[in-house]
Design brief:
The protein is α/β, with parallel strands linked by helices. It has two domains: 3-77, no CATH class; 90-278 and 319-350, NAD(P)-binding Rossmann-like Domain (Rossmann fold, 3-Layer(aba) Sandwich), CATH 3.40.50.720. It contains eleven helices and eleven strands. Strands 7-6-5-8-9-10-11 form a seven-stranded parallel sheet, with helices on both faces. Helix 6 (188-219) links the parallel strand 8 (170-173) and strand 9 (226-231). The longest helix has 32 residues, at 188-219. The protein starts with a helix and ends in an 8-residue tail after the last strand. It binds nicotinamide-adenine-dinucleotide. Nicotinamide-adenine-dinucleotide binds next to helix 3 and helix 8.
């Protein structure tokens, strides 16, 4: 067993009465001063049995687990968590530095999750994580610089997450980019970059997160459900004029979701996509310098529009709910996907009625 397997196994086995986090300590499996709340395991193969024996005599998890001559692991439980909905879960949010991703990270942190913000933007992502940790909650946040289009970088993200928290329960593949353009404008390089981030990046997220989740499934009692959630788009449900590179990648993402779902349900891993409508208040649309509202106004895309407000109204009027999608709308769908245990392989629309399933 390598160290990531040991940590994931220990976290599941110690989580009998509520999720815990597990972290390596500096001691290398030294049993000489093992305290009363220490579980000593002679050999890695004996992990399951040793925990079985521990819980015959104790209701609480051990505070320290020592694998003799291998490593020592500090186990922490969150204690009283009040009405939080996902206390102690370990959640990665890719593209979590801004936009939907940042909002999702903040909301799920309030719900008790340990959050890993994974983003290319180190400055903004670290600042955000600092803000979350300043709340001094029992759950914590971590920033890991990540490029989702690079498999080594995503593998490292999962490794850093496991070393910090002892495992991974929810992977939210949210990072995405949009470069619009028709066939005449779209150059092959841009198409390729978009596909690597929006489509292939999701494959890397599922590949490396499922590896740890499968170990957790092996060591849990069969009731520990995990989630891979892709933030897709309404453009994954219906073609998008002069925006095919984006829509194509998002359609493909739903094919991945359905296929991963079939493969991973036996391991208690649910896989779902969430398909939000336009997030008009987010930077993609509202950035005053290069947001889509400014771009569309300058390009005269909306006939008769003289101001940004005119462009915004035009788009809002296309939504039956008469407003754009908000972070909280997406978070409610994410919490549904996590809390239910009987649905996988779905593409859940959150579009204010703009897109409906056939
Ligand atoms: N904004 C919308 O209207 C809208 C609507 C539906 C779906 N979505 C989807 O929601 C997700 C988030 O969109 P958003 O509008 O919040 O985006 P955004 O541009 O505001 O933020 C995206 C974040 O992802 C990061 N990122 C970009 N490339 C990355 C990479 N290769 N590796 C790691 N991080 C990377 C960026 O640094 C940024 O922090 C995307 O998948 C998008 O397709 C957005």
């Amino acid at each position: 067993m390598d160290i990531l397997e040991i940590l994931s196994a220990v976290r599941m086995l110690a989580s009998k009465n509520g999720l815990v986090t597990c972290r390596l300590t500096d001691e290398k499996g030294d049993v000489s001063d093992a305290g009363v709340k220490t579980l000593v395991i002679e050999k890695p193969e004996e992990i399951k049995n040793s925990f079985g024996e521990w819980f015959k005599e104790n209701t609480e998890a051990p505070e320290t687990v020592v694998l003799k001559d291998v490593c020592s692991i500090a186990v922490s439980s969150l204690g009283e968590t009040g009405r939080q909905r996902i206390p102690g879960r370990v959640v990665i949010v890719t593209g979590g530095a801004q936009g939907f991703g940042a909002g999702i990270a903040e909301e799920l942190f309030e719900e008790g999750a340990n959050i890993v913000v994974a983003d290319l933007n180190e400055e903004v992502g670290s600042e955000m994580v600092g803000k979350l940790n300043a709340k001094d909650y029992a759950n914590k946040a971590l920033f890991v610089k990540t490029d989702v289009s690079d498999p080594d970088s995503v593998e490292n993200l999962v490794k850093e997450t496991t070393l910090r928290f002892g495992g991974l329960d929810v992977m939210i593949s949210n990072a995405g980019i949009l470069r619009a353009g028709g066939l005449d404008e779209m150059d092959p390089k841009t198409f390729e970059i978009m596909t690597k981030v929006n489509y292939t990046g999701y494959f890397y997220c599922a590949k490396y997160s499922s590896k740890v989740m499968k170990i957790q499934s092996e060591y849990s009692d069969g009731n520990h459900f995990m989630d891979i959630i892709q933030i897709n788009s309404k453009s994954g449900l219906k073609g998008s004029n002069r925006n095919f590179a984006y829509a194509g990648g998002k359609f493909g993402g739903i094919g991945l979701t359905q296929s991963f779902a079939l493969e991973l349900m036996p391991n208690q891993i649910k896989v779902n996509s969430i398909c939000p409508g336009n997030f008009f208040d987010g930077p993609l649309w509202s950035n005053p310098e290069n947001g889509l509202f400014v771009q569309y106004l300058k390009a005269g895309k909306v006939p008769g529009a003289k101001t940004i407000e005119d462009v915004k109204k035009f788009y809002e009027n296309q939504v039956p709910a008469r407003r754009g999608c908000r972070v909280i709308d997406v978070v409610r769908a994410i919490l549904y996907a996590i809390e239910q245990e009987y649905e996988t392989g779905q593409a859940i629309p959150v579009t204010g009625g703009q897109e409906m399933l056939k």
